[in-house]
């Protein structure tokens, strides 16, 4: 592709040099530049990519896209000055891969919790409906059943467009993707033509990055502000910021709710350990999910399928057969009748919800023992709140480690302990080793008791100082239960 074709749809402030040259690829990391590549200089969180323009040229870049032209402009290189390099990266990547998102219907899911659950269930549902479907999620990037382990919930713009180009080549008609607030803020989703957007909820998380809750809301809302009139914007009005998301969108506004009037409604009729009976849009169906939040997720899945033109009866029948997503309320039972639930709840609200779901199904003749930690190098202010939520709805709590990253695990646990009210001091213990914490919970438990192991879900590692050590909550529980002997 020639440079002038690549940039024909973007707003160029200044072009220095020739635009007839052939472009062989795009990179935003100077270390990944090859001969004939376009280097896009982005201002990052840690460094300014403009510092690496010289390195990128030395590495073979023939075009540099930047917000400020460097002092020296070598003759053999073309320079494209733009207002916002982050936004332009996605647009260039989309053009380079021949606008893949326009060849399918892309639906993005945003919100603090529920993104992976909804995007994954939509992928499974549309596979059951017989389509070729793509998925971009925290756990995996999938094209039909072919998958690669995900590096980010929403990867960088270049990777997104590459994935979508592969999806288009495989004949995918739909792509369901998670849209994280980091991705919106860093414009990783620029260049994607969305057919729909879903908002689940917004609660305490990521304040290390967004600084204030208002800024966090603003980032989420920007996704809906950017949707085209041809798309739908589906929001959860049970969340108090649900309608805020729709304030300035051009898209068709739609609502869903478990509690009040909305375009799509759902009611939990019965809850059991192995499933719920729902009234979903006027129809009673059995599902294999537990908890009000899962009723909400299934409603979002249903509403999206209907908006995308699927047959109501077929969709309801398939929803009834959907299984829970890995590491989301995954239950393991010991031979003597102890229950373990491995769940990815890593925010105060998610913990409250998952414990709420347990409370709906427990008999109250048993104990609920919660094992939970908080991630290092992430929002510190959620730590005491997580301990507080765990204690409110558990009989015993073991505070432990969850991906300490570059922080001291003992210091993270101390931050959590600050959320322990005096009245609860006797039901909490801190055990730094997650393996020992799980072992202790299993030893404490009697047959019939429920052990919630929260925070890591599908993760199969413990990240310490940049190294991911193999660790899987489900494996640990199975070992303690003697199930793998
Ligand atoms: C805080 C954050 O989001 N950082 C992301 C960001 O990196 P950054 O801004 O730190 O980059 P930087 O190091 O300052 O570099 C700036 C620019 O200079 C370039 N550079 C840098 C060095 C060099 O030698 N040459 C060079 O060209 C870099 O390629 C970059 O373009 O841009 C990178 C490329 O897109 C991301 O990989 C990186 O994600 C980091 C690894 C990360 O951990 N992000 C997490 C917090 C994240 O994004 N999480 C959300 C999910 C959260 C949730 O909902 O739970 C996600 O979507 O995964
Ligand atoms: N709709 C929901 N409302 C509140 N909590 C939820 C909801 N759905 C799931 N959860 C809880 O949040 C946890 C994470 O769910 P999920 O992985 O679907 O969220 P996510 O938004 O993808 O998270 P991440 O930001 O890490 O990508 C679940 O294990 C469950 O405890
Ligand atoms: N996407 C989230 C996942 C958190 C999972 C938890 N196990 C942790 O490490 O904090 C994040 O990166 O903040
Ligand atoms: Mg996710």
Automatic annotation (TrEMBL):
Pfam families attached here? Mur_ligase (PF01225), Mur_ligase_C (PF02875), Mur_ligase_M (PF08245)
Q: Which Gene3D superfamilies match?
A: Mur ligase, C-terminal domain, Mur-like, catalytic domain, MurE/MurF, N-terminal domain
Q: Which GO terms describe its cellular component?
A: cytoplasm
The enzyme class is: ligase
**MF terms per GO, please?**
ATP binding; magnesium ion binding; UDP-N-acetylmuramoylalanyl-D-glutamate-2,6-diaminopimelate ligase activity
Cofactor dependence is on: Mg(2+)
Q: Principal localization?
A: cytoplasm
- HAMAP family from the entry? MurE
Q: What does this protein do?
A: Catalyzes the addition of meso-diaminopimelic acid to the nucleotide precursor UDP-N-acetylmuramoyl-L-alanyl-D-glutamate (UMAG) in the biosynthesis of bacterial cell-wall peptidoglycan.
Q: Where in the cell is it found?
A: Cytoplasm
Q: What is this protein called?
A: UDP-N-acetylmuramoyl-L-alanyl-D-glutamate--2,6-diaminopimelate ligase
At what positions is N6-carboxylysine found? 220
């Amino acid at each position: 592709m020639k440079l002038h074709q690549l940039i024909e749809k973007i707003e160029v402030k200044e072009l220095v040099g020739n635009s007839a040259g052939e472009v062989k690829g795009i990179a935003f990391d100077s270390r990944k530049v090859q001969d004939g590549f376009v280097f896009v200089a982005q201002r990052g969180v840690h460094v300014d990519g403009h510092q690496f323009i010289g390195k990128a040229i030395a590495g073979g870049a023939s075009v540099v896209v930047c917000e400020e032209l460097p002092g020296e402009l070598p003759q053999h290189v073309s320079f494209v000055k733009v207002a916002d390099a982050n936004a332009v990266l996605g647009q260039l990547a989309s053009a380079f891969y021949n606008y893949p998102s326009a060849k399918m219907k892309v639906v993005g899911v945003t919100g603090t919790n529920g993104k992976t659950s909804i995007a994954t269930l939509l992928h499974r549902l549309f596979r059951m409906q017989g389509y070729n479907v793509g998925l971009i999620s925290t756990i995996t990037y999938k094209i039909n059943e072919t998958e690669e382990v995900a590096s980010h919930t929403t990867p960088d713009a270049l990777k997104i467009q590459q994935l979508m180009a592969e999806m288009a080549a495989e004949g995918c008609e739909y792509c369901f993707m998670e849209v994280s607030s980091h991705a919106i803020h860093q414009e990783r989703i620029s260049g994607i033509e969305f057919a729909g957007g879903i908002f689940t909820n917004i609660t305490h998380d990521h304040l290390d990055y967004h600084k204030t809750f208002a800024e966090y809301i603003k980032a989420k809302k920007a996704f809906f502000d950017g949707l085209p009139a041809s798309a739908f914007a589906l929001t959860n009005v049970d969340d108090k910021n649900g309608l805020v998301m729709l304030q300035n969108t051009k898209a068709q506004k739609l609502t869903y709710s478990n509690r009040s009037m909305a375009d799509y409604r759902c009611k939990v009729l019965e809850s059991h350990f192995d499933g719920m009976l729902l009234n979903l849009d006027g129809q009673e169906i059995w599902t294999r999910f537990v908890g009000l939040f899962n009723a909400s997720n299934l409603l979002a899945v249903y509403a999206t399928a209907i908006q995308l033109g699927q047959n109501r009866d077929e969709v309801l029948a398939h929803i009834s057969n959907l299984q829970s997503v890995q590491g989301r309320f995954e239950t393991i039972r010991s031979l003597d009748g102890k229950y373990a639930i491995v769940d990815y709840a890593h925010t105060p609200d998610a913990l409250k919800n998952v414990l709420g779901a347990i409370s709906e199904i427990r008999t109250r003749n048993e104990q609920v023992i919660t094992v939970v930690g908080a991630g290092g190098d992430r929002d510190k202010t959620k730590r005491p709140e997580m301990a507080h939520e765990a204690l409110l709805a558990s009989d015993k709590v073991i505070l432990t480690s969850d991906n300490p990253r570059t922080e001291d695990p003992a210091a993270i646990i101390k931050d959590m302990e600050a959320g322990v009210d005096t009245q609860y001091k006797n039901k909490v213990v801190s055990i730094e080793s997650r393996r020992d914490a799980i072992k202790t919970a299993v030893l404490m438990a009697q047959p019939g008791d429920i052990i919630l192991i929260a925070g890591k879900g599908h993760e199969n590692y413990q990240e310490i100082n940049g190294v991911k050590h193999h660790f899987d909550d489900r494996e640990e529980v199975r070992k303690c239960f003697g199930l793998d002997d």
